[in-house]
Amino acid sequence: MARTRAVSFSKIGGPEVLEYIDIELPPPGIGEVQIKHAAIGLNFIDIYFRTGIYKAPHLPFVTGKEAAGTVTAVGPGVEEFKVGDRVAYAGSDGAYSVERNIETKHLVKVPEEIPLETAASMMLKGMTAEYLLNRTYKVGPGKMILFHAAAGGVGLIAGQWAKALGATVIGTAGSDSKVRLALEHGYDHVINYNTENFAERVREITGGAGVHVVYDSIGRDTFPQSLDCLGRFGMFVSFGQSSGPIENFTLAMLAQRGSLFATRPTLFTYVATREELTNCANALFDVVLSNKVRININQTYPLSEVGRAHMDLESRKTTGTTLLIPE
């Protein structure tokens, strides 16, 4: 049996629990292919699993949800993929590895015009932006949106995409440099939440009307102020909790602020079927190939230094997308 290297943890905790270890790699099983990763995406969901906010299905556990690479072996019953295919995925645990076996239901083929490193950096974040803007709340001309963490991986993609769809795009960021970065990526207005009250500024920008939708991946630190940014019948979309979970959220808050709507979506619900996955990925590939959305790979780390990458992401030192590169 072959062997490969992967990052695993046997207990929840800080970045120090991540171990770069040798693991066995059997031949791919029925409905699986074996792939060699070119690059692996770093996401906050990886931290949620490491810290126990999301429960790992078993321990030890190889985390990571997003990567791209090349098919090196094909298991029994696989017809859609062949050795040499360039593929990417978002949603299958086990991405923190040099090589792996994966069920083909998670995979999409990457267009030749898109580098594998770009694909690895955009699948989870880009498909998240796709479902948020096109399906959770339909963004288009005449819509005003607020997107928190505008200089983050999802935020930089969403700002450009929402602008291409015709919306007025407001963002928040935590430093002047991040404000400037977001303004270069589609945002009409960016609020530094460390120096300004973002709810008050949103009301000023919108002439008191509020926005149609707030996209919030921050959680505790931006609640309930996010609700205060919405106009009547507005939608609060909570799709992450980088600052911690929202607490003391009551339905009365929605009534008091104008019959608001609230939802807690996940990418994996929106791409649960093969058709949904391919449609979502193809929409992302199309908008990137059209140059309406450019993908920024702003940080790279060797896979063996994943602990340092986690620390930088948690401390909000990173912008755009971050890659782990297998040695």
TrEMBL record:
SUPFAM superfamilies: GroES-like, NAD(P)-binding Rossmann-fold domains. The keyword NADP applies. Residues 13-324 form the Enoyl reductase (ER) domain. Coiled coil: none annotated. GO terms for molecular function: mRNA 3'-UTR AU-rich region binding; NADPH binding; quinone reductase (NADPH) activity; zinc ion binding. Keywords: NADP, Oxidoreductase. GO terms for cellular component: cytosol. NCBIfam families: PRK10754.1 (NF008024). PANTHER family: QUINONE OXIDOREDUCTASE PIG3-RELATED, QUINONE OXIDOREDUCTASE-RELATED. The gene is qor. Its EC number is 1.6.5.5. This is Quinone oxidoreductase, NADPH-dependent. The keyword Methyltransferase does not apply.
